[in-house]
Automatic annotation (TrEMBL):
Gene3D superfamilies: Transferase(Phosphotransferase) domain 1 (1.10.510.10). It comes from the Bacteria. It comes from Salirhabdus euzebyi. Keywords: Kinase, Transferase. This is Putative Ser/Thr protein kinase. GO terms for molecular function: kinase activity.
């Protein structure tokens, strides 16, 4: 396989639209500021930032390095001007668990709490915590990804609100444990408009 630098140089974006990428890379997902690819068959992923967001690469790497003594967060292997290579976790996001009807247990919630408390102990401010950033691995471990907003000053209540929904609704015996994507996306939209009764503030 070619070097990561060569592969990244062959990725083409138009603003935040992915135009093309090398066959050696497998697209995992696209977000607001970057696209993530698996490096061939390796348990490694390369996160490549869109041109207008490439300054975030260095920022996110610094945060991951601050968290590198915790198993809750991925290890960083290589860093470039607009990308970095990190450990790839195999499993499902909690968003996918809800979609597939895989039960989210109190232990999983506690593990997320432990991961976020560790980040706080390092002087960080965990923010933008949502179900797509929390992974349940094949060995039933909880992992956190996408930490670029962990240095923002504003207090983020998103995880607290998710816990409120979990404790007051999801845990009820007859409350559904499986949701179609369209309903999950509707709930997310209603939350953003502060229509749901789970907001902390």
């Amino acid at each position: 396989m070619r070097s990561v630098v060569e592969l990244v140089n062959d990725i083409k974006f138009t603003d935040t639209k992915l135009v093309k990428y090398p066959a050696e890379l497998h697209l995992i997902g696209k977000g607001r500021s970057a696209a993530v690819f698996q490096l061939g068959s390796q348990q490694k992923a390369v996160k490549v930032f869109y041109p207008s967001f490439k300054h975030l690469a260095e920022k996110e790497v610094a945060i991951y390095q601050c968290l590198n003594s915790s198993a809750y967060y991925p290890e960083i292997f290589e860093v470039g001007p607009s990308y970095f290579v990190m450990e790839l976790f195999t499993g499902l996001t909690l968003y996918e668990c809800l979609n597939k009807g895989i039960e989210i247990t109190p232990r999983m919630i506690e593990e997320v709490d432990h991961a976020l408390e560790f980040a706080k102990s390092k002087g960080l401010n965990p923010s933008d915590i949502h179900l797509r950033n929390i992974i349940l691995t094949e060995s039933n471990e909880i992992k956190i990804i996408d930490v670029v907003r962990f240095t923002q000053d504003k207090t983020c209540y998103q995880w607290r609100d998710l816990k409120n929904a979990y404790l007051h609704y999801y845990q009820l015996k007859y409350f559904p444990k499986k949701y179609p994507k369209f309903l999950m996306e509707l709930i997310i939209r209603l939350y953003r408009f502060r229509i749901l009764p789970i907001h902390s503030k």
